[in-house]
Specification:
It comes from Castanea mollissima (Chinese chestnut). Belongs to the class I-like SAM-binding methyltransferase superfamily. RsmB/NOP family. The protein has about 450 residues and is of the alpha/beta class. Helix 14 links the parallel strand 8 and strand 9 (about 355-360). The chain has helices at about 1-15, 40-45, 50-75, 80, 85-95, 105-110, 115-125, 135-140, 160-170, 195-200, 205-215, 235-240, 255-270, 325-350, 370-380, 430-440, 450, and strands at about 150-155, 175, 180-185, 200-205, 225, 245-250, 275, 295-300, 355-360, 385, 410, 420-425. The longest helix is centred in the N-terminal third of the chain and has 25 residues, at about 50-75. It has 17 helices and twelve strands. Bound molecules: S-adenosylmethionine (SAM). S-adenosylmethionine binds near residues 228, 232, 253 and 301. S-adenosylmethionine (SAM) binds near residues 30, 231, 251, 253 and 254.
Amino acid sequence: MEEQRGAVGVLRKERGSEGIRKCPRRRCSSASSGVHKISDIIGLVFRNKKATFALVCQTLKHLPIIKDVLDAATILNAKWKRQQDLIYIITYDILFGQAVSLVGDAEKFLMHRKDALQTALARLLVKKNVKTPQDLVDLYRIPEVSKPRYVRVNTLKMDVDSALLELGQQNMVEKDNMVPDLLVLPPSTDLHNHPLVTNGSVFMQGKASSMVAAALDPKPGWEVLDACSAPGNKTVHLAALMRGKGKIIACELNKERVIRLKETIKLSGASNIEVLHGDFLNCNPNDSSFSKVRAILLDPSCSGSGTASVRLDHLLPSNAAGHAAGVTDTERLNKLAAFQRKVLMHALSFPAVERVVYSTCSIHQIENEDVVKSVLPLAASYGFQLATPFPQWQRRGLPVFEGFQHLLRTDPVEDGEGFFIALFTKRDDKNHSEKQATCRNNSKSLARDSCTE
Ligand SMILES: C[S@@+](CC[C@H](N)C(=O)[O-])C[C@H]1O[C@@H](n2cnc3c(N)ncnc32)[C@H](O)[C@@H]1O
């Protein structure tokens, strides 16, 4: 009973916000974005946390079946339809879980209709031509995206060939054909406890995420600002690309995430990163401390919709087929987009900046193409234009404005994660990307230095 009420709270909270994550991986969020960490969600439940969470997960897993059963049984009147979270959870318990005690009205209502529910389930098994409820669960399951495991070699600590050799002792491993310093391993490779990971010689970082700092392509000796930096994967990538020379200012608003950022920096061995705990929007572009900043990496809080496949979002009622974006979703996306637009405009206003990369792990046009399109006049007034990161990459932006081909997208299904990258360069820097592309295409015979100088 207690678990059921707790689970209803969690399910409701979830339906109004983000997805449940399978694992406590990187979360791209800020307090203002309304995104919850799994620990926050579970923290909502006073007691029996584990049991409550298990009940939510199980209910979500069985949700398509529960809905079909309830539809077929036609037992819900308008009153109970308004309490569908509770109904889903109790129905799960009746059909697949523990014995239900007749404590509350909803339990009594459903237990008195247990036969109708079980008959509807039996009919569903026949209709779907399967034998057991587990067969049904398998039938309804959305296939998981199986994506290769990527690791980025932290060239501050180890060269790529040595990493290749060492990882190759136990795994199939090869260099990525596009992103420098990135290695590709088979999907199921578990490297969490590998010594090269734990000592910071390699970072477990996806391909799309690794494209961002590479697209910015800062030179050794530059001053670079990472505007929204925690947990710092891209910050330390910048440090590696700059070969530890020059300076990186890593700005982060969230106090707890500053701790993560510092841990990442420590692990990387980078010594040229200055952490700035504060709001990027309060960084005055005309302050002398930013007068030499030549490049800005802007990876602001976003909906995270591009990485939803590693969460359980597809199981949520709000993701059911045909479900239109709810008011809460739209409101949240609008708020995020307004914030993203504001920080992007701010980044473009730093006087010495020649290159700005804007990235999200979102698939939504409103956070991506629309944000970029909306700042184009301002960008042009500062002398910026869109450049083409990784021109050899096929998947470009959505065709919603002229110049969309400059934008880069990765697809959550095809590429394992949905990312978006836009690169702004000052006009006198306009040949940079093209030159980089030519260099990369010839990179097999060229040392990296000759491309970056
Ligand atoms: C998408 S995450 C960044 C991930 C990071 N680039 C990486 O690759 O590890 C966005 C970060 O921006 C931070 N943030 C949000 N609003 C901010 C602001 N106004 N100023 C600085 N940081 C902010 C969030 O707390 C969050 O840590």
